[in-house]
Amino acid sequence: MASRRPDITTDMGRGNPGSPKRFTSQEEIDYSIENRGYQDARNLAPITDVTTDGPIPADIPRDMIKFNIKVIDPENPLNAEMLVFRAYLDDISDSYKAGYNSYKYNGRAENFYTYNEFDRSISFKFRIQAQSRQEMKPLYQKLNYLVAQTAPQYKNGRMRAKYNRLTIGDWINEVPGFFESINLNWKGAYSWEIDSEEQLGSDGIRMNQLPQNLDVDCSFKPIHDFAPENSKDSPFILPHRGGIDTAQNWLISDSTSNLLSSLGTFGS
């Protein structure tokens, strides 16, 4: 029996922004009245405490494509805070680079090479889009924490980085690393929240004048939890963690001996 195709409005919690609104006595739309069931549940999801290696909590609304960022707790790498965004993805680039040392020998015209280094860079762009005023606060709280990942954390007077795990589908699945840059871009066609900062809505939310749409451009540097090597078992673009089913392990061998302990990777 064929499975039913998920409905993005009901199954994925995106809601229906074109649904009827409640009206005031003057027959004007009151946008401050919460229109339950018609909002984007994923935008409404707050910053959530999770375990680093565990599956996505059941109360987090699904999306067609998994898209989330885990902020690792450096004091206890088994704990994390998860940021979930709707997967309005515009662009993904996954770049692999090999570096070689070149040598010249007397009597030979060509160069000779020895392997020197490996590097990988990931960049992606996505869009935030609030469909109701109630979504603006949790959406901007998550975005604010996301851009904070480029800043250091201070401990005992010293700076240290916060590591993250990035998930975009199963292509980039729980990949550890850090954000090199995050750029926020507003376009002229994007609307702003223009509700007066002095006005307190009937929903009790005092709005800030912020864009309802923004483009987010991220550059992410992976720090793999396995030894990158030329092997059939190196899980560069195949999932191997994050609560996946054993049937999703498409690596050649049943065991990946080159995987290292993530606890050692994130130890301070």
Fill in the keyword field for this structure:
268 residues; mainly beta; 8-stranded antiparallel β-sheet; two-stranded antiparallel ribbon; 31% strand; elongated; disordered C terminus
The gross shape turns out to be elongated
Strand residues, percent: 25-35%
Note the gap between the termini: 51 Å
Approximate helicity band: under 10%
Largest sheet: 8 strands, antiparallel
SSE sequence, one letter per element = HEEEEEHEEEEEH
Overall structural class, as computed from helix and strand content, comes to: mainly beta
Folded structure, characterized:
The protein is mainly beta and 268 residues long. The chain has one domain (42-262). Helices cover 9% and strands 31% of the residues.
Short description:
By secondary structure, the chain is mostly beta strands. The chain has helices at residues 41-44, 133-147, 262-265, and strands at residues 48-51, 67-72, 79-84, 89-103, 112-129, 153-155, 158-160, 164-168, 172-185, 213-222. It has one domain (42-262).
